[in-house]
Amino acid sequence: MGSGYSMKNLTIQNVSKTYFDPYAGANVTAVHDISLKVNQGEFISIVGPSGCGKTTLLNMIAGFLPISGGSINIDDKPIKGPGADRGVVFQTFALFPWKTVGENVGFGPRMRGLPKKECDQIALEFLSLVGLEHVAQKYPNELSGGMQQRVGVVRALANNPDVLLMDEPFASVDAQTRMTLQEELTKIWQARRPTILFITHDVPESVFLADRVVVLSKGRVLEDMPIQLQRPRVWDQLIEDDTFKGLSAQVLSKVRSA
Amino acid sequence: MSHRLYSAFKFAIPLLVLLLIWEFSIQFFQVNARVFPSIESVYKAGLEAVNDGSIFKHVAASLGRVAVGTLIAIAVSIPLGVAMGLNPIVSDFLSPLFRFFSVLAGIAWIPIATLWFGYGFGAITFVIFNAVFFVVTYNTLLGVASIPMPLRNAAASLGANGWTLLTQVILPGALPNIVTGIRTGLGFAWRGLIAAEMIATNVGLGYMLFLARDFYKTEVIVLGMIIIGLIWLAIDRLILAPVERATIERWGMVRRA
Amino acid sequence: MIFLKAWSFYLRLVAKFPIVQTILPFVPLVIAWALVTEYEVFPRAFLPGPMDVINAFGTLTYKGVLTQYLEDSVVRLAVGAAVGVAIGIPLGLLIGLSDRVREAVWPVLLFFQAIGDIAWLPILLVWFGFSLTTMTLIIVYTVLFPIVLNTSLGVRSVSTDLHRAALSLGASKLRVVWEVVLPGALPNIMTGLRNGLGYGWRALIATEIIVGTSGIGFMMFDARRAGSVVEILLGMVVLGTLWYVVDSWVLAPIERATGKRWGLVTQ
Q: Which domains does chain B have, with CATH numbers?
């Protein structure tokens, strides 16, 4: 995952975001000053209370929002708008309803100009990562929420992005499925080592998944906490683990103090 | 500037630009008055029509017919629609009938209306009545029939019956569809009116337009078109939109098809 | 009890032959019509009976007149609709995609929609006379508005996330329009098409009544001049049936199918 040849690091330098809110009639600063370095293959969680700027940050990295100040670079090259180098997984799944699951996953490869047969093959290969190769011919609205989001994740992965941005991807899914998806995500990550930026407001989730947890507050970085937990991580074990509980408590107190 | 005023202003700008383009094109291309009038001639025609009272005569005739036809139609169709809609068997059975006649709404009735009622007020009002009646009845029927039974049961179990049930549950529940029906019906009615006035009478906006055509008085035609547009905009913004805002949007209801 | 049994029989019949549900309600209507004419409640000259209309149908079809008129009407509608669609969908796309275009064009559109199709007839007559061009232009004008409005609505209803998903998968802005916006707007476009055809059909009849030389509308008006009510009624029946059939059995199912397939709800 990633390119494998060169080190693709994501460098966020003093990024800020200000926009004009017509209802408030004034400028609003969503992000004051954030600097962050994400190394190739790292799994970073970004947590914070509502309004801390985490979604705005993700949208800027993804290229959906312009940056007001500072810079975002991938390997010293500034990002320019959205692109296939930064894949996104959405809270709303955002699967194309009129395309089959296979066509959805093969969308990225198709945009790159690959022939249809190859796209279909790639799609099946990635769908098998999550055990969904048998639904390749189905339409998204025929799948459950959990299955749809799995498709959403592999769709982004199938395009070999330098960075995978995940915007509260499991928030729309029930608690049980969420835990399963979290475990699956870590397994995929261990196998393929993409660089992942995972936004969430769920503190235990952020600790469970990540190498580092970054706590944001009011548009600034409050804390950048490494997570020294063994992998593979499994809920049955960790839920009673003292280190896990301690780390979660630490992060939670930071978030609540914000 | 308040928000409403500002958006009204923003709305007007493209129209003002259009006016400028109109005037400029006439001058630049030396357009013959018989092909398209200049703003000045339309304005003059307007003044003339106001001075000799003809414009009021025509507008009054048109609006009168629409008002009478529409009000009678609504007065008949809503109760009818409610009565039919309450009984699922009746509403299922009669639906195709009303859908069929909704298709014929208005204009298709002009030939037979002139045969039955001769030319003039009667025939035209009949066409308008027609245009509104079938559409509103059908929509009322749909609106009432699609009120979920749990809602009606809930009301009944809270002690509502008869008149209360009707006014507190049925009518409000069907209101989005009724208002949509009225809007559509009124649209048909207005169009049917203009068409009918072109052939079946000697007073009214449609007649004014058609007569002017005979004499190539394009300024009168354009004047008439602008007035027709303004009247419909007025009906839409001053009558229909507020009603829709006060009922559908306020109650956050979704229209059921 | 008997009523319930009859009702249950009816439901089972309808389940097997859905067409019965559509046709059955008209039976009592036709019977009532026949009775009213039989007892001469209105003078025969004002309201002929169903048999008279059927006879006229037979005669006119035999003479080829009805089929010719029908063909004329339908062709005009088709041509007008095709032009309206060719202009309307791209325009709707543009308005839906660009806020600037929307702000510039919307008030103008709304105003012209308010003027209505028929009001353009006199000036079109001045410009093009009693010709096919006049009629086609009226239909194009009528069809245009529902299509533009519904298309732009459909475009705007495509969620931002879908746009962004496509962009982050490497699609260029143009490809996003083709791969995401158009399919996403399709249910609304179908609604616009269906509405547009409905209004177009009515506008066609009105135009034929006022200035036609052939077509169903003309047939009705000509018959009225000759005082022959039968043909007027025939025209109305043909009109209603034709549109009802096309709308319910062709257009509505297509609209439903696109909406359903996408898992979206159509109005």
A: 37-249 (1.10.3720.10)
